[in-house]
Amino acid sequence: MSMRLAAQSCLAANDWICGEYLRSRSQELTDATIEHVWITVASVLIGLAVAFPLALLARARPAFAAPVLGLTTLLYTIPSLAMFSLLLPVFGLSAALVVTGLVLYSLTILVRNILAGLDAVPAEAREAARGMGYGPGRLLWEVELPLALPALMAGLRIATVSTVALTTVGALIGKGGLGNLIDDGVQTTFKAQVLTASVLCVLLAVVADLLLLGAQRLLTPWTRISGSARASGTTPEPRTGGAV
Q: Distance between CA 35 and CA 3 in Å, rounded?
C-alpha cells in the first residue's frame, strides 16, 4: 500500500521521473509512438521515391543539376511553421500535411547522397560492364547502385534521424506523434510527460539508425571485408575465375 502511495505521490509532486505515469498512460504513449513511427516511415519512403528519379535526372541532364539541388536546398531552409502554412490549403489539418512537409525536407539530404554515391562509382567499373554488354538500365541496377549503396544508406540514415526529430513539429496541428505529448506537457508543465516523450523520441532515432546501419552492413558485405583488411594491414587477394 505504501509503495502504491509513493508511486502516486510522484504524480502529485510532478516529478520528472515517475513510474506511475508510465503505468497509467501506457496506452497513450503507445499510440503516440505508433503514430510517430508511421509518419516517419511514410515520409522517408516517399522522400526516397521522389529523390531517386530527381537524382537520376540531375545526373543524366547536367543542366538540371543546379536547379534540382538549389530547389531542394531552398525547401530545407523554409521554417516548419511557414511550410505547413503553405501546404495547409492543399492538405488541410491532416497527417498528409505533416508527411508532405517532411518529404520535402528530406529531399536535400537524399538527392545529394544518391548523386554522391553514383558519382563515386569507378569509371573502370562502368566501362567493364559496358564491355560485357550491359545496357543503361542493367548498368544502373546491377553495377552502379550496389556500388553507390554506402553513400545512399548514409543519406538514408541521416534523413531518417532528422525526420524522427522533425515529426514532433506536427504537434502544431495535432499530428506530431510523441511531439503532441511533449507540446501538451510543456503547456501544462507536466514534467514526467515531457521527459518520457522526449526520451522515447531519442530512442526511436537511435533504434532507426542502428537498424539502417545493420541493413547497410548486410547489403554491402564488401565494405566489411575491405575494412577488416585495412585494419589488419593486409590487402585481400583478388579472386580469379576457374577451379584449381
A: 33
